[in-house]
Design a protein that fits this description.
Shape of chain A: rod-shaped
Shape of chain B: elongated
Number of strands of chain A: 9
Distance between the termini of chain B: 92 Å
Number of helices of chain B: 20
Structural class of chain A: alpha+beta
Radius of gyration of chain A: 43 Å
Largest sheet of chain A: 7 strands, mixed
Oligomer: heterodimer
Helix content of chain A: 40-55%
Radius of gyration of chain B: 41 Å
Distance between the termini of chain A: 86 Å
Structural class of chain B: alpha+beta
């Protein structure tokens, strides 16, 4: 009997270890360990053994059973693992296939730039004021020290709706409206569409966007204007950006200036972008003319302020190296897609 | 304004290279647009003398010249010109020479004869016969004056002048003159301004016996001065004067006309010379035009005059439009015997209005309209007479006529250094300010500044501050940061707009920017009915053309143009939106139009159909927190597919249901107008109303503690029953325990029969306080079915 057990042990261990597939293994389990299996059959003969032999053979039988059960479990585990490995191998995909992108839209480049400017100015305490695009002549010109016959009006060719209502040529009307309705301190920026009778070409458009700013308070100085605008451009184009102010004339500011910034392409050395100048003309500014303050009921003996205005398209074109303003209004998707990839946007 | 630098230097002896001059003038406030020197574009062109000339042995029109350029040997040059006889001085372009027109000269052979350069004509040097009246257009330029052989021809011809172009702002008409810019240059470079005061003219006889002047429009003619010259000797002006005119961009004509132009450039005072023979009645009246009067101006155009226009008239009628342009017989001719010089001060706004109405801008009108200093008129007239004498262009008639009832007095301002420092943010000593003001022609005494009459722009402290700041240097002033509290927040409306844009971008739409004016034809393009109120648009009085003449009342055409452009560019799909302003006429023409903010969308291509765009709208409504909204079938109004169009109504909190906008598939007829061969869906929603319908900050709800049961119902009904009605009925019958309802299938087909459809809904049922049993769920479903039965909807069998 002992020999029989040893024989089963040897034979079963070999067969189990070599079993391929779950079915074969299960058949072996039934053959050796099942109720009608070989091991059970031997155990059934235990009754014929002597009392000395019985515990000895019983122990051996249990040992063999334990071993075989373990072997079946181990083999089952191994078979399952290799089956999974085969399945996974079969599921291999080309990981270099293009990804399935979620369908997102995107912002217009001018909108992205405007948001950035708003963020900068909000941080400096300037609120955003918006207002009508079709404006009274009074708010667009007259109260800004440009009466009907003023030659300065020639620099802003105007579309009129009636004698006294026009398509605003600048967002300054919002400065007037704000000063009429709010007491200093005032800090606002006024972005928005403006209209000038310029034919569209690479750098002109009869419709474009301006961003103007106004600060009015006690003791605001020309040097404050310089510092604020310098900081603005350092925020927009990086801390190494330099600014330069040139005397100029606007009817609604005195002293007035035009501001150049160091060319963001060459850093001021001179390149095709800045036509070799090292500087790029970027905005107009000045101390609010006392007559404008008076027109709005603000006493220029107590308050002073500065104002500025820049073209948003121009900043946008420079920021993204766009060479033709008309592209901004064509809205060709192949163009629009370019500004929503390639790096962080503000 | 083109400034020949040597002319300015005759008033202010500054000396510096052109680039430095340009840079410093710009930084002190006279903006330089650019500068050039003709001779910089010329190389190796020298003065040569034709020592010998003979016929080309092999040609009947070429000549072989031996040209002496001051070297040991003469240079042989072949020319085709016929005006040389020998002995003349000519510009000779030698081998390797460059000409202003970019031409390069190489030696070579002409019909077998060696030619080592080229003799130059006027045209080849970029000159005209007006610049060198003695020269011929079709021959070699022969120098009038002697010049050393071999000298630089550019210098000998006066082409080595540096000409600087300035952009003069409208506040500085005084700088539209050589004298004005020289004054600025003197102050910029710290040299003394040497003014030239023309002498009192002395002439024969008395002008009053020849001419009378009457100013009837004293409010718009502040001064009218006139002088006369008789025995006029019309001739070309001398070279120095022609050259200055040419460099300043003015064509030399003859001595009398050139004098008026020269004085205008030098003093900034426009002048006019009338032929006395054409001043009928020897009487000049400055008056307003009479009704029905017209004038043929010097340019040959007949122009009707308005009663608000100022004219210079003789007995018969207008002979000039004051300050703008003379009439056709107001010029100076070869036959002219006597000349009347006019030097006047016309009221700027009046000249400007006239010039604009006539559509006629001249050198004269652009100066007058900025408001010239009337004191100039007298100086300029005397300067003109001085030149007449110098050029021997005629004999002066004694006396001047000068109607100047209220001579302009210089005004004074207190010098308030503290105030100026406070505005600038500086601490400049008063003396520094005085040192800046004096060279500019201001006088300062006892704390009072006397402003020169030419500086019409200086009236207040801030103007003085600018004078001080620009000569201290804008860029030497410090930069400071604004003090005081700085608080700013985007408004709720601004944040809402950003939110909406973000949602639309996340929904796959691309933001656009389109023009806000368009053609009236745009209304036809979107098939708007003739009686549509949207055809009532704000009109631009002076548009570029009809195509840009209306302010849009609907941005749908704008977005369809974008779609059409992308379709034409073969984009497979396109989904775009714009936060667009639409403009509607105001309650009256005296009031501003009404401007509405809209969210306008349009899309075509895979995945874009009516329901997809409706999904975007629903997402937007949900993101905006709109409490309740409903959809109503609409007929499309011509622009949309009549069977695929709806209007969205939203509940304004505490208010009524308002129309948010329209949503639908674009009508095929509209597609055809835009040449789009795809189904396009579009929506136009009011951002203003959406904002008013918005919800507040979302408040959290506890997550459910009890499980949900799901019941799916496949319902059959007639096709015309709207899904929205079915859903509403299910919700009503389901009550509070119907947590959510989703349509998961729509089916029509043979199995159902003609005119029938099936809608399959999934109902999620939950009770917040207890676990629902199947029996509970069945009871709810039974209630729902009972309600549906009432509207002819039953379980699909």
């Amino acid at each position: 009997m002992k020999n029989q057990l040893e024989k089963i042990r040897a034979e079963a261990a070999g067969l189990i270890a070599a079993a391929e597939g779950e079915q074969t293994l299960d058949a072996l389990r039934v053959r050796f360990l099942g109720k009608k299996g070989e091991l059970t059959a031997i155990l059934k003969q235990m009754g014929g053994l002597s009392t000395e032999e019985r515990p000895f053979v019983g122990a051996l039988a249990n040992e063999v059973r334990g071993e075989l059960e373990q072997a079946v479990a181990a083999r089952a585990g191994a078979l399952a693992a290799s089956a999974q490995a085969r399945r996974l191998a079969a599921e291999t995909i080309d990981v270099t296939l293009p990804g399935k992108k979620p369908v997102l839209g995107g912002r217009h480049p001018r909108g992205i730039v405007l948001d950035e400017l708003k963020t900068i100015f909000l941080g400096m305490g300037f609120s955003v004021a918006t207002g009508p695009e079709i404006e009274y002549d009074k708010y667009n010109f007259e109260m800004l020290n440009m009466p009907k016959s003023h030659p300065s009006r020639d620099t802003q060719d105007t579309f009129y709706v009636t004698e006294n209502i026009l398509l605003r040529t600048q967002t300054s009307g919002m400065q007037i409206r704000t000063m009429l309705s709010q007491k200093p301190p005032i800090r606002i920026i006024c972005p928005g569409r403006v209209y000038r009778a310029d034919a569209a070409d690479a750098t002109h458009s009869p419709i474009f966007n301006q961003i103007e700013g106004l600060a009015v308070d006690r003791g605001i100085t020309f040097t404050d204007m310089k510092g604020t605008l310098d900081l603005f451009f350092k925020q927009l184009y990086g801390p190494e950006t330099k600014t330069r102010f040139r005397p100029h004339h606007f009817a609604y500011t005195e002293p007035s200036a035009e501001m150049d910034m160091s060319c963001y392409k060459c850093g001021g050395k001179g390149c095709p972008m800045c036509k070799g100048e090292g500087w790029i003309e970027i905005l107009g500014c000045g101390m609010v003319h006392p007559k404008v303050l008076e027109n709005c009921g603000i006493n220029p003996e107590i308050y002073s302020g500065f104002a500025f205005g820049a073209g948003l398209e121009r900043i946008t074109l420079m920021r993204y190296a766009i060479d033709d303003m008309r592209l901004l209004y064509d809205n060709d998707l192949r163009f629009l897609r370019q500004f929503n990839e390639g790096g962080m946007q503000p | 304004m083109k400034l020949p630098v040597s002319w300015a230097q005759s008033y202010a002896p500054f000396a510096c290279p052109p680039a430095e001059f340009a840079a410093k003038m710009t930084m002190s406030g006279s903006k330089v647009e650019g500068w050039e020197r003709e001779s910089d574009r010329m190389e190796n062109v020298v003065v040569g003398r034709i020592d010998a000339i003979e016929r080309h042995p092999d040609s009947d029109h070429l000549w072989v010249c031996q040209v002496n350029i001051g070297a040991a040997e003469t240079i042989q040059i072949v020319t085709g010109a016929q005006n040389l006889k020998g002995g003349e001085l000519c510009p000779a372009a030698l081998h390797g020479a460059k000409l202003p027109n970019g031409m390069e000269i190489r030696k070579g052979k002409l019909r077998g004869v060696e030619s080592n350069g080229m003799l130059c004509s006027l045209g080849e040097l970029g000159l005209t016969v007006h610049d060198y009246p003695a020269a011929t257009e079709d021959g070699i330029l022969v120098l009038e004056e002697d010049a050393p052989l071999g000298a630089n021809a550019a210098e000998a011809l006066g082409m080595d002048e540096v000409v600087v172009e300035f952009e003069i702002t409208p506040n500085r008409p005084d700088c539209l003159s050589v004298r004005g810019l020289a004054r600025e240059a003197a102050a910029t470079f710290g040299v003394t301004f040497k003014d030239h005061v023309p002498p009192q003219p002395t002439g024969q006889g008395d002008i009053n016996t020849h001419l009378s002047v009457k100013v009837e429009a004293a409010d718009t003619c502040l001064r009218y001065a006139a002088a006369m010259v008789e025995n006029v000797r019309i001739a070309p002006s001398p070279r120095w004067l022609r050259q200055r005119l040419r460099h300043a961009g003015v064509r030399p004509i003859n001595n009398i006309v050139d004098i008026t132009n020269y004085v205008m450039l030098e003093y900034g005072q426009p002048m006019h010379a009338f032929d006395y023979a054409y001043v009928n009645g020897a009487k000049i009246t400055v008056r307003r035009a009479k009704a029905g009067e017209a004038i043929v101006t010097l340019d040959g155009v007949s122009r009707p005059l308005g009663e608000d226009m100022m004219v210079i008239a003789d007995e018969k009628g207008p002979i000039a439009v004051a300050g703008v342009m003379g009439g056709e017989f107001s010029g100076v001719y070869d036959t002219t015997q006597k000349v009347v010089f006019e030097s006047a001060a016309f009221h700027g706004p009046s000249v400007r209005a006239t010039s604009r109405k006539l559509g006629l801008r001249t050198e004269s009108s652009t100066r007058f309209e900025k408001g010239l200093d009337p004191s100039l008129a007298g100086d300029a007239l005397r300067r003109a007479l001085e030149l007449v004498v110098e050029l021997d262009a005629g004999d002066l008639v004694g006396g001047l006529l000068d109607d100047y009832p209220a001579p302009r007095q210089p005004h004074t301002l207190p010098l308030q250094a503290d105030k100026i420092n406070k505005l600038l943010g500086t601490a400049l000593p008063e003396q520094r300010m005085i040192d800046i003001l004096l060279p500019l022609g201001f006088a300062v005494q006892d704390g009072q500044i006397t402003v020169p009459t030419s500086r019409t722009d200086v009236t207040r402290d801030c103007d003085i501050a600018e004078e001080v700041a620009r000569f201290v240097g804008y860029n030497t002033l410090p930069s400071t940061i604004l003090g005081g509290p700085a608080q700013a927040m985007p408004t709720e409306r601004q944040r809402f707009e950003s939110h909406c844009i973000d949602i639309l971008v996340a929904c796959g739409l691309w933001q656009c920017e389109t023009f806000s004016f368009y053609s009236p034809k745009s209304f036809d393009a979107i098939c708007l009915p003739q009686n549509s109120p949207l055809r009532n648009a704000v009109k631009i009085m002076n548009p570029f053309g009809e195509d840009t003449s209306l302010m849009r009342t609907t941005a749908l055409p704008s977005l369809l143009e974008v779609v059409a452009r992308n379709w034409a560019a073969r984009a497979a799909a396109c989904a775009v939106f714009e936060q667009a302003t639409e403009y509607h006429p105001g309650p009256s023409t005296d009031e501003l139009p009404i401007e509405n903010q809209q969210l306008v969308m349009a899309a075509y291509g895979e995945g874009w159909d009516y329901l997809a765009l409706k999904g975007v709208a629903e997402t937007l409504l949900a993101a905006a927190g709109v409490a309740a909204w409903e959809l109503r079938r609409a007929d499309g109004g011509g622009s949309f597919h009549p069977g695929r169009c709806a209007e969205i109504f939203v509940q304004i909190p505490g208010g009524s249901l308002e129309k948010l906008g329209v949503l639908g598939e674009v009508h095929p007829a509209v597609n055809e107008n835009y040449d789009i061969k795809a189904r396009v869906v579009a929506a136009n929603l009011s951002l203003d109303i959406l904002f008013r319908a918005r919800g507040g900050t979302p408040q959290s709800k506890p997550l459910p503690k009890f499980p949900a049961l799901t019941r799916d119902l496949a319902l059959a009904m007639n096709e015309e029953v709207p899904a929205a009605n079915v859903a509403a009925a299910i919700r009503a019958a389901g009550g509070a325990r119907l947590e959510s309802l989703a349509l998961f299938d729509v089916y029509t087909g043979e199995k159902l029969g003609e005119g029938r459809k099936s809608l399959a809904y999934s109902l999620v049922l939950r009770d917040s306080k207890t676990t629902l049993t199947d029996a509970d769920a069945d009871a709810i479903v039974a209630k729902v079915l009972k309600k549906l039965a009432g509207m002819g909807v039953a379980l699909r069998s």
